[in-house]
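Can anyone check this?
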Amino acid sequence: MALSDFELPNNHLSVIQALLGNPVSIGLLKKIRIYNKNKFAYKIASPLIRIFYYGQEKYGISERDISAKEIDEIVDIAMPRIVEDSIREYVSSRLGLIETIMEDADYDVDGYLLRFQTLSMTLEVKWKKHVSDLREVASKLLKIDALEHILMVPSKKGLESDQTKIMDVIDLIDL
């Protein structure tokens, strides 16, 4: 029986949320609040399983043999989003903030961290070796009315900004 063959009653949203409660409670799924909405997003908690399902959805990897090169490409595509999610979760938990995301599929900004209902911090993660345009990232963050704007990079060596706080892996340890 395919998932598309499964029929839901008219009150399908409450049924789906009830079904997602158990996987969330045992840590298979992570429930993340949508910024400024009374809604939630659900993500697979395990990075390895997320990579597998990404590869399955895009390339049907369970139905054929795949090369090490293809695996590397799939991981390279999936990993930046996993790093963004992990850093957002870590920063919010270390600072006692509420982790939220935008409903947008592309996430204009990677994290909106709240203290109670007030937007305390915006978080943008650039997990490539080089941030091409720091001004562009800063202007995107500054369009949002938050107390603090953070750009997270693997290494902040040589990067400076008057408008945005730049953090790297070492700063995460010190949080």
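Reply from J.R.: I decoded it. The beta strands are 29-34, 40-44, 98-101, 111-115, 118-125, 148-152, 165-167.
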